[in-house]
Sequence to fold (107 residues):
Amino acid sequence: MKLILKNLSLALAALGLSACVTPSVADKSSITLPPETAHFKPGPGSDVATTYCTICHTADYVYMQPPQNRAGWEATVNKMRHAFGAPAGDAEAKQIVDYLLTQNGKQ
Fold:
């Protein structure tokens, strides 16, 4: 294994690339994520949005999106449900869409 890593390092160096491929570095590296700070703003439906949307992404992700009208948010919520498996039912999806319109909607 050490010979393979040494050869890989030499090959990358020959290409002008640096490599951090030693087992000691790989074994000790870790990533610590900051605590979640983004939350949905209070309002009717914020609890439902928090329950179903933040399973996969932060509230910031919603606020970073371009404002959408009802049809746009319905399409987005349905994509999350049907393509990505968000477990929200029809009633919850309607509440989420209504809430998203108040947070990042356009008429």
User: Anything to note?
Assistant: The chain has six helices and no strands.
